[in-house]
Amino acid sequence: MMGSTKLLVVDDEKDLLELLVKRLTRKGYEVHSAKSAENALPLLKKFYFDIAIFDIRLPEMDGITLLKETKQIQPDIEIIVLTGHGTIETAIEAMKQGAFDYVTKPYNLKELEIIIEKAGDNKRLIEKNDSMRKIIRQQNEFQIVGESSTIQNVIQLTERIADSMVPVLIEGESGTGKELFAKALHFWSSRCDEPFVAVNSGALPEQLLESELFGHIRGAFTGANQDKKGLVEAADGGTLFLDELAEMPLVLQVKLLRFLESGEFRRVGDVRERKVNVRVVTATNANMEKEVVAGNIREDLFYRLNVMRLVIPPLRERKEDIPLLIDFFLENKNCEKRLSQAAMNELKQYSFPGNVRELHHLIERGILLARTNIIEPVDLFIGNHERKKSEREEVLLSLEDVEKAHIETILFETSWNKTKAAEQLGISVRNLYRKIEQFNLMKS
Questions:
Q1: What integer pLDDT is reported at residue 138 of this predicted model?
Q2: Which of the four pLDDT bands, split at 50, 70 and 90, describes residue 208?
Q3: Which of 72-76, 167-171, 296-300, 404-408 has the lowest mean pLDDT?
Q4: Which of 84-88, 150-154, 207-211 has the highest mean pLDDT?
């Protein structure tokens, strides 16, 4: 960890400060220093540090106050305090305020180095545990349902290539479950204990997407108040999933191609190269060859990504999986309602332009509208089915339910293109984002 660990040392004793900086630099740490808290705070706002070493007795602002200020700026930093014999009680107070440990002056450099190593190990363990918690949540949400030969063929191919490092391009109509297969490529591989990071290439404007993907440094643009890691760095050691690739701006495609070829990138506004070890999986509901001809996808990027391709079949080509999927959706909602045979027959005859996602939405609608524990065809609103006026009046929905259902329908019909959806709804894109958050709507 030493080579990548960034330290800040603050001490007003010039000779001790220089000695410590030289010693730790020789040990392979990246060390910054300051002679006062006032000089240290700008560094903390400008750079990200793993560990800080503060002398308790500093001119003007003391070490305890600096510690509190530092934890406000960088909550995850590990802080070691240096204290004289007469300030042990102050050091204990520092521990209560979040310091990792303290060392009494005059200190033994070897002892201090051991504590620094322990602080680094502790920080790494905390980060790993945070990552593992995210992984566990993702794994709990991850399941591919289907026994048809068409879906089983894709599952078997996914298993065969999961441990490969080659890029994988996942193609399929909207709603077929491309992200599920991206997760399968990750969780069925030796990288399963590392992060799986998903990026929606069409969800953000070009500048924000680049910053989210590659990170930025302080001052790179208005509002960039401190350095920020991008999702590429967050995925280091694991898998980076780029969804809706065809909507990625061409300028950013150039940078993505360079990253794919070398594993190197630059944060927005930075001149320094960084490198990570990431397996890249991409997905699109567009015909990539046509997108290349149309000029929406760079040809060199397409060939770099198209090393291995997974094509997810639409639901109309695996209708025997419909009953299994319905049972899965109902069980996940702990719902006691069941479909009548007539409703099941209607679903099996339906073409499902929205695929598995549309089936999910139909089942949710049926659960909401069914007046008994049996969901009938009229509850699903498939095709030309309409309730009689008297029946509709008996279904008392709140205005909020109606609004949620309408927004969800428009998002589905526009393949979650938020600009088009907002236009159809007659609201701003910003307002649409608020509604999506308010109703906890998710593209599934």
A1: 52
A2: confident
A3: 404-408
A4: 150-154
Which residues fall within 8 angstroms of residue 104, CB to CB, at 6 or more apart? 83, 84, 85, 88, 91
Query: 332 CB contacts (<8 Å, ≥6 apart)?
Result: none
Q: Distance between CA 197 and CA 212 in Å, rounded?
A: 11
SS (H, E, C) 351-406: CCCCHHHHHHHHHHHHHHHCCCCEECHHHHCCCCCCCCHHHHHHCCCCHHHHHHHH
Question: Cβ(179)–Cβ(242) under 8 Å?
Answer: no
Q: What is the DSSP letter of 245?
A: G
Q: At what angle do helices 355-369 and 399-413 cross, to 10 degrees?
A: 170
User: Residue 103: its pLDDT value, please?
Assistant: 86
Whether the predicted pLDDT of 241 surpasses 60: yes
In 84-161, the DSSP E strands lie at 101-104
Predicted local distance difference test score (pLDDT) of residue 444: 57
Residue 314 DSSP class = P
Alpha carbon of 364 to those of 338, 360, 376, 398, 403: distances in Å?
12, 6, 13, 16, 15
The upper half-sphere exposure of residue 142, i.e. CA atoms within 13 Å in the direction of its Cβ, equals 19
Count of helix runs (H) and strand runs (E) in the chain: 20, 16
Cβ atoms within 10 Å of 161's Cβ, excluding its own: 15
Degrees, nearest 5: CA angle 88-90-91? 65
Q: What is the DSSP secondary structure assignment for residue 87, as one 8-state letter? A: G
Contact 405, 361 (CB under 8 A): no
Mean pLDDT of 251-256: 90
369-373 LR contacts (CB < 8 Å, sep 24+) = 369/395, 370/337, 371/395, 373/336, 373/337, 373/338
Measured CA to CA in angstroms, residue 329 lies from 73, 195, 387 at distances of 43, 27, 24
* Both tokens assigned to 37: 């808290």
Peptide bond into 106 cis (omega under 30): yes
pLDDT at 273 exceeding the cut of 90: no
Choose among 1, 20, 2: nearest CA to 10: 20
- Global pTM? 0.59
- Give residue for tokens 């014999």: 85
CA distances to 344, 355, 362 from 383, in Å: 14, 15, 12
DSSP assignment, residue 47?
S
The torsion defined by the Cα of 402, 406, 407 and 413, in degrees rounded to 10, comes to: 160
